[in-house]
Structure formats: C-alpha cells, structure tokens
C-alpha cells in the first residue's frame, strides 16, 4: 500500500482588499472525503502544515445550507482523523521521498499562505520530478503556485487543471474584495484551466497531476488517485 501526505494550510483568516478579516479554515469534505477514500483503500495518510499548525475548521463547511446534508459526517470524519493523527507534521521537515502522493485540500487558506510557501514549493518540485502523484481540489490548486524551480519557472505551467472557478467565487459571495481570483491567477501563470458546471463534480488528470473543481469533486479526485496508485 502507499503513503499519502495531505498538506493543510495554517491560515485562520483571509485578509480582504477592504481590510476586513474573513474567517477561514479547512473545508471538511475536501479533507474528509479523500482521507476516507485513501484509508479505505488501505493507504497510510499523514497530515502536514506550515509550522505544524492545526488549522481550524471552516464553519461554512459545517452548515448544511452551504455544504449539503452530508456535511455533519464529513466534519466528524475530518475531526476524528486529525485528532487520531495528532499534531500535523511540520511542512519544512517533510520530504517527498517518503510519500507516493501529495494532496492539497481547500478552504480559502491556500490562497493566504500555501500559494507562496517555499517549503511546499520544494516538496512539490521534488514530487513532480519523481513522477509522484500530486492532487489538489477546490482552492487547493492555489498551493500549486508555490512550485517554482531553480530558474524561477512555475513547473505546472502548461498543465491541464481544474480549480474553484471565478464564477463559483462570485456565487459563494467572496469574489468582491478578494485580493485575487484563483482560476484567473492560474490562467495568468500559464495553466490550462478547464471547468465544469458550478458546484458540480469536475476533475482532470494530466499525467501525475489530479485536480478537482470544488467540494463535490473531492471523492472523484481521490478515487482517481486510488486507481492510479493501484496501477502502480
């Protein structure tokens, strides 16, 4: 069986262009659904974050009106998984050589810290060069922006990927006063961003890169990763 690293943000707030502080945290489904799928397939899952900080839950992901009727199960699974694991590993002390896949869930945290985290960038460059699986869902693909090589080139430029869309950000009510919009930034950096219908599952595999558009894409992305790991 394989060993998988889930990298979480450490951010609890997202500072807006108007100076306001928007509370954020991990999105329950995007952490729980992949973890459940990976463990169910017999894989070992570790958690890491910048400084080993345990990010709080994004309370929006525990609201059935926002996150769907199944959100309580996702919250319970995520909280138990994190509690059982204990303090997250410190991202700066983690090596890609210890893992077969690196997976990046969302919540708005990755657009606060992970998108420019040099330790994550090093990890992702190492993983991609070794042909290891890299997965990211919803706002998780923001973390891919950290992967800049020694020549200053973004290693995922030209790759096909999905991510939370500008339209979904507007529908969620967080596009106004956002410092930047994820899908637009990915395209500006050279990604071949593709998208499905708002809030409907949509995933893309481009070689070893697996991405999903939104929370509903979490399980399909994880299933695709499991299939790839099983195929060796």
Entry summary:
31% of the residues lie in helices and 17% in strands. With 232 residues, it is of the alpha/beta class.
Explain how this protein is built.
The structure is a single chain. The chain is α/β, with parallel strands linked by helices and 232 residues long. It has one domain (3-231): Rossmann fold. Helix content is 31%, strand content 17%. The protein contains seven helices and eleven strands. The protein has helices spanning 28-40, 64-67, 71-85, 118-129, 166-172, 182-188, 218-231, and strands at 3-7, 13-15, 21-23, 44-49, 89-90, 101-104, 133-137, 160-161, 192-193, 203-206, 209-212. The strands form three sheets. It has a seven-stranded mixed beta sheet, sandwiched between helices. Strands 2-3 form a two-stranded antiparallel sheet. α1 packs parallel to α7 (218-231). It is globular. The model has no long low-confidence stretch (mean pLDDT 98).
Mind sketching the topology for me?
Layout: E1 3-7, E2 13-15, E3 21-23, H1 28-40, E4 44-49, H2 64-67, H3 71-85, E5 89-90, E6 101-104, H4 118-129, E7 133-137, E8 160-161, H5 166-172, H6 182-188, E9 192-193, E10 203-206, E11 209-212, H7 218-231
Parallel strand pairs: 1-4, 1-6, 4-5, 6-7, 7-11, 8-9
Antiparallel strand pairs: 2-3, 10-11
Helix pairs in contact: 1-3, 1-7
GO molecular function: glyoxalase III activity
Protein name: DJ-1/PfpI domain-containing protein
Pfam family, one: DJ-1_PfpI
